[in-house]
Amino acid sequence: MRSREPSNNLICNECRQINFDQVLGLDPAEHSDLGFCIQKVGKRFRQRTPTNCQLCQILFDHCCFDYKGSEIKVDDGQDELRVFHFMSFNDAIDPLKTERGRDTRRTHPLWGLAVVPSSWHLYAQELDDPGLLLRSHFQEHGSPVIYHDDSPAPETFAVQRISTRFDLSLVTKWLQFCSQYHNKHCPKSNHSVDRLRLIDCESLDVKTAHPEDIYVALSYVWGSPDRDNAPKGGGNVIDDAQLPSILPAVISDAIKVTRLLGFRYLWIDKFCIDQDNPGIKHDQIRQMGRIYEDADLTIIAAAGLDENHGLPGVGSTPRKAQPAMEIGNVTILSSMQHPHSSIRSSKWFTRGWTFQEAMLSNRRLVFTDEQVYFECNAMNCSESVYTPLEKLHVKDKSKQRDILRAGVFGRNGKEAFGGLNINTLHFERVFPRYKAVIEEYSARDLRYDMDSMNAIIGVTRKFESLRHPYSHVWGIPFPVSVKPEVALDHFVSSLAWFHTQDCWNTNTKPRRRVGFPSWSWCGWAGQISFPLLVHNNLWAISFQDKCGMIHDFAETFQGGRIEELQELLLQARVLPSSAFSYNPASNEWHIFNRFAKLNLSQGRTSSCDGFWKELRAGRRWKCILIGSMLDTAHIMILESSHKDFWYRAGIFQIFDYRECEKIWVEQKLKQKKVATFRIK
C-alpha cells in the first residue's frame, strides 16, 4: 500500500502553517458533504502563479471555483482549505446498496484536500446533491489524500504510489485471479473466426491462426490514412509476412506487453487484415466482434491521440507524474484522475470502432496517461487505489460485490453499480440496455460513413444470441421472442429516436450518411437519444426491398432479409399544419396549443422561424403521429423529395397529449387525415 520515499520537499511558509493534525479523529458522518475547514488561505489560489512549493502546486490543481461551467459565487472573504472524506466522493461503493457498504464508507480514514470559497457550503446546500460538485472534481482531477503517521492506513481503497513503469507483477495478479475464478462471467469463447491471422510476437511474422492459438488483441486509434506500413499481398492470406522494421509506438509497445504477460500471439487489424483485398477485408470486418470476443485479453491504448503515442510506462512514452509530497509527519498523495474519467475523455473513446472492441472483450487492460486499469466482466481495478481482490468478491469469488462501482464499458451513467449480465435479463430490461448501447455508440466518430453499421455489427449479433433475443432493421431494435404486437410497440419506440443536437447547432449538428436510410439513426452522424417505451399509433408498417417487393412487419419479425429492406412504408395520421405555432421570442413550440419540443435533424432554413413558416405552408413538410405513452406523443417530421418518397428529418414531442387527442376528435381529424408515406 503506501510507502515512504525520501524527498527534498520545497514548502512555502504559508503551507508550513497548516495544521494537518486537525484531521485526526474527524468523524466522516459529521462532515460527509461539506467537509471541514482546516485553514483560511486568503485569495492566493484564485490565480495560478509560478511557485516552487510542492503543496501549492497540488492545491492549485484542486481549487473548486466553478462547476460544469457554472461559476460559484465567490465572496470577498478568505477562501478555505477543506478536507473531504475520500470515500464519500470517489464513488467506489454504492452508499444506498447495503448497510455493509455504508459502514465501509463511514469507517474509512482517508481525507482529501480542496480549496473552496468561504461561501461554498452555502452553494453546496442549494444543490439537490451537495456532494456532486466534489465528486465531479475528484473524478476528473483525483483527490490529494492525507496520510498521517498517527493514523492507520485503510485496509481497502487505500491510495497508493504508482510506479513510473508498467507494473507487470500487479497486472499478472489481476489476470491470474480472473482466469482462476471468473469462468462464469469471463468464459472462453467457443466461436471460430474464419481466415484469422495473428502476429507471432517471437518471430514478428504474420501467420494463419490455428484453432488452439491463444491471443491478445489490440484496440487503438489509427494514425493518418496512409497504410504503407501494413504488409501487402495479392493472395487470400499473407502468410509469413514480416512486420516492418519501424512500427508505430503503440504497436511495438503492445508486442512487448504481450510477451511480458506470457502470450505469444497478438491480433492487430492493420497487420492481420489484408488491407488490399476487398473481399477478405469485408469478411474480417464482419467478424470483428468475434475476434475481440475470442481474445484472451484486449490491450486498449487510451492515451495520446493515435498509434504514435505508445503505451505510457512501457517503452519511451512516460507516464504523467503522480503528485506527492511530505511535510512533517504527513504524506499527501494524489489518487490521480479516475480511470473511468481518463478513458471517457480520451481520443480512443471518441472512435466508433473502439466501442464494440471494448464492449465485446472479456478482459481489458487499459493504458491511460497516468496508470493501467483492468476491467473484465466480473471486476475492475486500477493501480492508484488498492483493492484486495478476495475481500471485495462474493464468497465463491466469481465476481466482485454488487455494492462496488461497476466497469465503464457498455454502460451508461445510470448503471454505475452492480453486475450486468444481459443474458439473464427479462426482455423488457434488455430493451433499455440495447438503446443505451446505441445512444453511446452514436456519439462516436467514424472515419468512413460506410462503417456506420459495420462498426457495431458485433454488438447487434450479441443481442441476437441472448436468451431473450433482439433483432433489428438497420439498427432499429425489437424483441423476437414475444407476440408480434409487442414487438411492434418496441420497434416504434426505437423508431422515435431523436438527435440530442439540432440542425442549427453549428459545430455539432447532425449530418446525413449516404447509403443508409434516413429513418434509422445509422443514416446520420450525430448523437441520438431514445424515448421510453411508447405504444404504436401507426395504422400500418411495411418495408420495400431493392426489387420493389413489399414485406409487412410480421414477415420481418419472423426473420426476413433485413439488410435488403431499403424503404419504410408508414400509414399514419397526419397533423394539420394549422395545429403548429411558434414563438420566436421564447423559442417555444406548441401543437394544438400544447407545449411541444422540436428535434430537427435536417432543415432547409437558417432558423426555427423559417422552418415554422415552411411547415405552415404545408408543402415541403408533413408531420405524422407514430406513437404515444401517457401524456407524451411522438411526431415524425418528414421532408418531401422531388419524387414520390420522403425523408425523415426529425421528431416533435408533444406534452399533455391527451388534451390534443380531444381536440383532434372534436375537429374530426382523427379519421380523415390518414396517408401512406414511402420513407427512404
How would you sum up this structure, described in words?
- The protein is an alpha+beta fold and 680 residues long.
- The chain folds into three domains: 13-159, no CATH class; 168-319 and 338-408, no CATH class; 424-679, no CATH class.
- Strand 8 (197-200) and strand 9 (205-208) form a beta hairpin.
- The longest helix is centred in the middle third of the chain and has 16 residues, at 427-442.
- Which descriptor suits the 3D outline? globular
Largest sheet: 9 strands, mixed
Looking across the biggest beta sheet, what order are the strands in?
A: 11-9-8-12-10-13-16-17-18
Average predicted local confidence, pLDDT? 87
| Number of E strands | 36
Estimated structural class: alpha+beta
Beta percentage is 15-25%
Give the low-confidence spans: 1-8, 233-237
Radius of gyration: 28 Å
Q: Helicity range of the residues?
A: 10-25%
List the domain count as a whole number. Answer: 3
What is the CA–CA distance across the termini?
60 Å
Number of helices: 18
